[in-house]
Design a protein that fits this description.
Blueprint (H helix, E strand, L loop, with lengths): L8 H95 L7
């Protein structure tokens, strides 16, 4: 029971060509849709990057302002340290002079 199927080679080639064309169209449409999707995502990333750049520039300005403010605070702290040191030296000297006077009440020049 063998069945013979006779077709012309031309018909077979036409079917193969049509299938290949359909596959090529499907692949092209999928590539186009993926390309559009990727381009949309890239555009979103670009807008996010632009936003981050703006925030970074704002932060740089704030950092510069803080640096100038910190230099002013550092100068004030330096002045305060000098005053504290001078006051401490004066108090310690007064304490020692008082002790010397108490120990040696008749010591001349104190």
């Amino acid at each position: 029971m063998a069945v013979k199927v006779e077709m012309e080679l031309k018909d077979i080639l036409e079917k193969i060509d049509s299938k290949i064309d359909k596959l090529a169209e499907n692949v092209d449409s999928k590539i186009d849709s993926l390309r559009e999707e990727v381009n949309g995502k890239i555009d979103k990333l670009d807008t996010k990057v632009d936003g981050v750049k703006e925030e970074v520039s704002l932060l740089r300005g704030e950092v510069k302002a803080l640096k100038t403010e910190m230099s002013g605070v550092n100068k004030r702290v330096d002045n305060q340290e000098f005053l504290n040191r001078a006051t401490t030296v004066a108090l310690v000297s007064a304490f020692f002079i008082t002790i010397l006077k108490a120990v040696f009440p008749n010591f001349p020049g104190i």
